[in-house]
Each structure stands twice: as C-alpha cells, then as structure tokens.
Amino acid sequence: MQDILDLDRFPLHRPHSPQWQALVDRCRADLAAQGMFNLEGLMHPHVAAAEVSRMAPRFASDAFLHERMHNIYFKTLDDLPPDHPALTRFHTSNRTLCADQIAGSALLRLYEWPEFATFLAATMGKPQLHVMDDPLARVNVMSYGPGQALNWHFDRSEFTTTLLLQAPDAGGEFEYRTDLRSEDNPNHDGVARLLRGEDPESRTIRLTPGTLNVFKGKNTAHRVTPVRGDKERVIAVFSYYEHPGVRFSESERLGFYGRAS
Ligand SMILES: O=C(O)CCC(=O)C(=O)O
Ligand SMILES: [Fe+2]
C-alpha cells in the first residue's frame, strides 16, 4: 500500500499501534466536534492523478449520466404539504463509473485492503466494517464537469466515505450543515432556512486531491456546488456495511446506475 498511500503520515498498516490509535482518536474527536474528518493527501496526489487519466476514456464513453430533479429527501413526505419550502427541488447532474468499470484500479485495491476497513470502523466506533458483494455499488467514481453538481441531500447511510481524485479550478465545493436534523427532530423549518441560503452554520470546504473525507451524512445536509471551468471534479465513494455480503436489488441498481449488471 506504500505505493499508493502516505503511510508515514497515516499508519493504517499498523492497526492498534500507538501512532494508529492517536490518528483514530484525532478522527473521532473531529467527527464528534464537526461531524467530519479529513486525511489530507492519504492517497499520493500523483497516484490520484494517474487514476483519473486511466478512467478518462471510460468517463467519455460509457459512464452513467446521473441527472435528476429532487428534493433534499429524494421523496415526498407524508407529513409535509407538497409546497413546503423544505421540499424545494434542485437539479443534480454527474457522470458515474461503477466498480466493474474500474477493475485493477488503486481505488479498488484500497477498498479491499482489510486495514482500510479496520481503520474506518475504529473511527466510526463500529466493531467491524465489510465490503459489499455488489459488483456495481462497492466503489463509485463521480465526475462533475462545468455546471454539474450534486444538490442538497441527506444520505441513507450514517457515514459517507469519499476520496477526492481531482479538484476543479473553481466551484465543486463541498457545503454541509452538520446535525441539521436528528432521529427525534426532522427540523423542517431549519431545512427550509438552509435551502434559502440563510443558515449561518453552513460550512464550505475545498477538498484537495488524495484527501479522504468521512462525514455523518444521514443528518448532515450536504451538496456539491456547480463546477466552473473545464477541469472536472472527480471523487470516489466507498461503500462499507456493518454486515458482510450486502447487495443492492436489481431495481436499486437500475435506479442508481441505469443498469442491473
Ligand atoms: O462528492 C462529495 O464530496 C460528496 C458525495 C456525496 O455526498 C454522496 O455520495 O452521497
Ligand atoms: Fe451524500
């Protein structure tokens, strides 16, 4: 893993060593304080750049164009009138490559490296995390060209794990509002305020290539702002579960990727 990761700064290869534990403790503290942690340059930037070059032909020819209008929940809510401002609809557009289209990549090697899951589980306070069985969903890579964006949403999973491969020249920032809602409080008025651009606790970060970003996506509202300029924003999303063998159904794969296999 030394060839693709900066293990000197981030000793993921030595689980439970004092240095590893110190890193886990720092990540846990960041998650508790800000709902997020970053390992800047975990993947060597030259490896991230090589991954992007290798994927470019696939993005140009057979990536899935994910384009839709949606609200922050990706659905209507029974307890809200359809014109409630929390249900404001926005446009999302990007291109997605699935795990079966990046065979042999450094990203998949990292995904399947057991020490990576061990580290992530420790930061999230879980006994263990498992790779998915799903041939498409395991790792996805999203590319955002000029004007493309991932609009406001909450994630289905408690945590989301990404690694930025290429940063755009402008735009394509990650904007998030930690703990906007909770298990007991959907905070629809707070959601409406955020969507109006009036939430003072909304934060924006610009990720740098090679950076691992883990955030609590279920109750943290977040979006990727529209990319400006010709250089695409390219980011990988890793999917781990607390149980082994998770697969999406055919209809889920069709909905997410436009194909089942
Ligand atoms: O691209 C990003 O930085 C965030 C990705 C994200 O929110 C998601 O995949 O659900
Ligand atoms: Fe998300």
Automatic annotation (TrEMBL):
- PROSITE patterns for the chain: FE2OG_OXY
| Organism superkingdom | Bacteria
Which Pfam families does its entry note?
A: HalD
Regions crossing the membrane: none
Spell out the molecular function terms from Gene Ontology: metal ion binding; oxidoreductase activity
Name the UniProt key words of this record, in alphabetical order. Iron, Metal-binding, Oxidoreductase
Q: Does the keyword Iron apply?
A: yes
| UniProt KW Metal-binding keyword | yes
Q: Which residues form the Fe2OG dioxygenase domain?
A: 135-242
Q: Which InterPro entries match?
A: BesD/HalB-like, Oxoglu/Fe-dep_dioxygenase_dom
Q: Which family does it belong to?
A: Belongs to the iron/ascorbate-dependent oxidoreductase family.
Please state what the protein is called: 2OG-Fe(II) oxygenase
Protein source organism? Ruegeria marisrubri
